[in-house]
Amino acid sequence: MRLAVLAFVALIGVPLGAAADEPAECGVPAELGQIGVSLPHLATRLHDKDPVTIVAIGGASTAGAAAGSPDLSYPARLRDALAADFPKSTIRVVNKGVPRQSAQQQLERFPSDVIAEDPVLVIWETGTVDAVHDIQIDDFAGALQHGIDELRNRAIDIVLVDMQFSHSTAAMIDFQRYLSTLHRVGELDGIYVFPRFAMMRYWSEQNVFNFDGVAAGERAKLAARVYDCIGRRMARAIRQAIP
Amino acid sequence: MPAPARTRDLRLDFFRGVALVFIFVDHIPENILSYFTLQAVGFYDAAEVFIFISGFTAALVYGQRLVAKGALYATAQIWRRAWQLYVAHVFLFVIFIGEVSYTVMTFNNPMYNEEMRVADFLVHPHIAVIKALLLEFQPTFLDILPLYILMMLIFPAILVSIRRRPLLVVAASFLLYLAVQILGLSVPAYPEGATWYFNPMAWQFLFIAGAVLGQGAARGVALPVLSRALMPVAIVVLLAAMVVRLSWTIAGVWDGFPTLLLKELWPVDKTDLSPIRLVPFLATVVLVAAWVKPDAAFLQTRAARPLVRAGAQSLEVFCLGIVLSALGHFILAEYASGLAMQVAVNVVGIGAMLLTARMLDWYKAMDRAPAPRPAMVTRPGRGDEAPL
Q1: SS3 category, A91
Q2: Residue B36 C-alpha, separation from nearest chain A C-alpha, in angstroms
Q3: CA pair distance A170, B124, nearest whole angstrom
Q4: Which of left, alpha, beta for A118 (phi over 0: left; psi -120 to 50: alpha)?
Q5: Chosen from A34, A72, A102, A172 to mutate, greatest number of chain B CBs within 10 A
């Protein structure tokens, strides 16, 4: 799905109810919930009721630091949602979130943190640090392509996850080039890019989640709710990609 | 031998004015208007136009001064200009620090605390400030002036040599450009690991190519002969580039529109001025030189005049555009990013740039006009006294 369309959708904000099995606050416009690709290797495993290992590699928002506990991170929430959907497979989601790493630095962790776990699906959350540090677009795109090729050669399915949205950071950092690069790489390689940025912007604009004026003690709870929604949304997307 | 007083080539001012407006528009992320700037249809953008015309104009202006008043005076003038650019750069940097400091103070989102250390430099402000003064620290928006400053610093040497051996200078400049493409040379910046966003070893070629053509134009060298031979090639190159690039732009709006050669060509490197950017740009130069005459009627129209003025006051208008685009970005991100707001930000921003150009134009004209003196102090026989 094209970024411009996503941005537009987030702007006009077609209101849409959440599914019956999830909190209403997780609702997003239908266009943000669609996935255009399949995850063949994961599908085979689930179909055969084999155990499944998913590695979530990314930054601080993958580690789940803001919520206060790894159990509240989106990979943990994703695991719970998937386990409910596919009770016959043992599903393991390994969290390899390390703060403040560029795509290239994450790529360098692949052998130890990703391949060694023998995953069938890798969720790669990336781009934030590249945008913050103004890393050259070529280098960013190159690192992404490297990582994708590496995983593909090993018959591992991939989901990319784009950046988080927040008003104050958006005013300071130009995420746009990195967002569109991430989405374009996904498009060229036929890989699903989970539109976290557009979703979070939608929530922010609809005032579903708003951090302004929230007391320090309450912020971790709010962050946990956002992670919960992200995990559930991602599980839904993955479910759609399993025929 | 002194060059006749030339009338100003309005094409340079006009296209530089257009480039300044485009730079403003393109600097606002997710700006609807950026679908209508150069970068949407060509592989290059307003930065190429700005640097090329700056080289061209520099050769025209300082070439005349060199002829009229000697190399030493011309050098002093060029370095004075470099100094003005440097002061503008520092001014913009201070505004940038203000903006970031403000945002950091009001920053209130735990989801980002860990990774969003944009304000890292505020932890070591002494280093960041020195690195900015040395042109090594180039936050977003503060990357093109360092290139321009560096070009002006070396320009006296370039000016003197292109008067003697223009082809040799272009050849050397192109070899350096090629070396960058092949060997991947880059200039380190701050923080550790960063490089100059506009690699000066690559982008110097555009500036110097502009300067050599400007020098040629000042001497009345028959460029049309050269460009006539190149025209068919230029047309083919430009058309092909436009079709390919436009397909990417349209595909960004409409899902499923075929993207031509995307896999082969993208991403197109701006830092090192990829040949995919350079060649279509040079093709454009050939065609514009052939098709748009210096005395083209449209340059004199009321509609074109604001842009011509903006191009003529380029430094001030450029700086204002940078500040305004940062402000526009901030407003769109902080308050509303709807279509109406986007249009409003563009209209207000471009309007402010054009009005400022007009005001500067008026002010400088008033400055130049001989001041009427009170009768009492008029002493015949005395020449113009310079104001303090």
Answers
A1: strand
A2: 15
A3: 23
A4: left
A5: A172
CB-closest option in A7, A60, A172 to B114: A60
Cβ distance A132 to B115 less than 8 Å, yes or no, reads yes
From first CA to last CA, the distance across chain B in angstroms is 33
- Mean pLDDT by 10-residue block, N- to C-terminus, for chain B (388 residues)? 58 96 90 90 94 96 94 96 96 85 68 60 80 88 92 97 94 97 92 87 97 89 70 93 90 80 84 94 92 89 95 94 88 79 95 97 91 59 46
Beta strands in B13-89 (DSSP E): none
CA atoms within 13 A on the CB side of B141: 32
Strand-pair category, A157-161 with A192-194: parallel
How many Å lie between the alpha carbon of B317 and the closest alpha carbon of chain A? 22
Residue B257 tokens read as: 């529109």
Give the distance from residue A231's alpha carbon to the nearest chain B alpha carbon, in angstroms. Answer: 15
Burial class of residue B348, CB neighbours in 10 A (0-12, 13-18, 19+): middle
Q: Determine the residue type at A138.
A: D
**What number is the ipTM of this complex?**
0.73
A172 vs B100: CB contact, 8 Å cut-off?
yes
For residue B353, the SS3 value is: helix
Dihedral, CA of residue B252, residue B256, residue B258 and residue B264, to nearest 10: 70
pTM, entire model: 0.85
**Single-letter code of the amino acid located at B313:** Q
List, in sequence order, every residue forming a beta bridge with A193; answer none if it has no partner: A160
The answer for residues whose C-beta is within 8 angstroms of residue B141's C-beta and 6 or more apart is B27, B92, B96, B322, B325, B326
Sign of torsion over alpha carbons B337, B343, B348, B351: positive
C-alpha dist (Å) from residue B381 to B271, B378, B384, B386: 58, 9, 10, 15
* Strand-by-strand arrangement of the A91-97 sheet: A91-97, A52-58, A121-125, A157-161, A192-194
Contacts A–B by Cβ distance under 8 A: 112
At residue B332's C-alpha, the angle toward residues B268 and B325, to 5°, is 60
Token pair listed for B375: 């009768």
- In terms of Cα–Cα distance, which of A31, A117, A120, A123 is closest to A73? A123
Q: At A161, phi and psi to the nearest 5?
A: -125, 125
Tell me the C-alpha distance between A85 and A238, whole Å.
10
Nearest CA in chain B to A101: B115
CB contact under 8 A, B108 and A65: no
User: Which structure tokens are listed for A60?
Assistant: 């601080």
Q: Which of A162, A168, A203, A204 to mutate to test the interface with B (most CBs of B within 10 A)?
A: A168
Determine contact, residues B163/B150, Cβ cutoff 8 Å: no
Query: Side chain identity at B280, as an amino acid letter?
Result: P
Average pLDDT over residues A154-160: 97
Q: Which of A145, A140, A139, A114 is nearest to A128 (CA)?
A: A140
Are B334 and A168 inside 8 Å of each other by CB? yes
With b for 16 or more beta-carbon neighbours within 10 A and e for fewer, the B148-175 pattern comes to: bbbbbeebbebbeebbeebeebbeebee
